[in-house]
Amino acid sequence: MHERLSEKLAQLLESNSSPDGITLNHLLERTDGRGFYLVVILLALPFIIPLAIPGVSTVLGLSVALLSLKLAFGVVPRLPNLMGDRRLSPDFQKKVLRGSVKIVRIVEKFAQPRRTPWMTTRAARFVNALLMCFMGLLLALPFPPLPPLTNTLPCYCIILLAASMMEEDGVMIWFAYLLSLGTVVYLALNVFVIIEAVKKAIELFRGWFA
Questions:
Q1: In this structure, are residues 87 and 23 in contact, taking their beta carbons and an 8 Å threshold?
Q2: Among 132, 21, 162, which residue's Cα sits nearest to residue 72?
Q3: Coil, helix or strand for 45?
Q4: What number of CA atoms fall less than 13 Å from residue 136's CA on the CB side?
Q5: Which own/partner pairs from 108-112 qualify as long-range (CB within 8 Å, at least 24 positions apart)?
Q6: Which residues pair with 114 in a beta bridge?
Q7: Phi, psi angle pair for 148, to nearest 5°
Q8: Comparing C-alpha atoms, which of 153, 132, 147 is closest to residue 62?
C-alpha cells in the first residue's frame, strides 16, 4: 500500500516523541526520504506568483539543483548540517509539520498513485531527478524582471515533478514533461531576444563613437 505522505507527517505530529525537537534531516529519515520532495516544493513555493525576487531565485534554484543531483545518483537526500541538523523547538516543530501537512494534502488532491510501476524504476527516478535538477538551474538563472514568468515557469515544473515523484503519479508526470519542454522553449526564445537586444545596443554605441 502507498502510504500518503500527509498521513506520515500527521503521525509524526501526533507522536512528537522528542521533547527537544527534531531536525529536518531526522524528518527526512522518518518519512523514508519522501520528505525530500516536500523540501523541494517548499524551496520552489516563493516563485509560484509571477514576481521576481532578485538573488533569492539563484540561491533556492541552486539548492533544488544540488539536492536533485544527489537524488539522481542515489545519494541519501540530506540537507547541509547547518540547516538539516539544527533542532527545531517543539512549538516551531508543530508549526512546520502542521503547515507541511496542509501543503501536502493540497498536493495530494491532484497527485495520486496512478500507473506507478515505471515510476519506481531506477531509470525513471534518475531521469526525473536530473530534469528537476535542470529546472532548478533554470530557476537560478539571473534573468531581468522582464520578460515575465522566467522564475514562475521553472517553479511550476519543479513542483509538478516533485509532486509526481512523491506520489508516484505516472499521469501527472507527463504534464510536468510538457510544461518543462514549454519552459525550455520559452526561456530559450527570451535568451535569444536578450542577446539580439544587446548586440543592437553595442552597435548603437559604436555608431555614436565612430
A1: yes
A2: 132
A3: helix
A4: 24
A5: 108/4, 108/5, 108/6, 108/167, 110/163, 110/172, 111/163, 111/164, 111/166, 111/167, 111/169, 111/172, 112/167, 112/169
A6: 169
A7: -75, 165
A8: 132
Express each pLDDT in 142-169 by its tens digit.
Answer: 877 667 888 889 999 999 998 888 888 8
Give residue for cell 519522501: 34
Handedness of CA 14, 18, 21, 24 (dihedral sign): negative
- Quick: pLDDT tens for 100-149: 677 777 777 888 888 778 888 889 999 999 999 999 999 988 877 667 88
| All three cell numbers of 71 | 537524488
> Are 23 and 85 within 8 A, CB to CB?
yes
The whole model's pTM is what? Answer: 0.79
Contacts of 28 (CB under 8 A, 6+ apart): 35, 36, 39, 77, 78, 79, 84
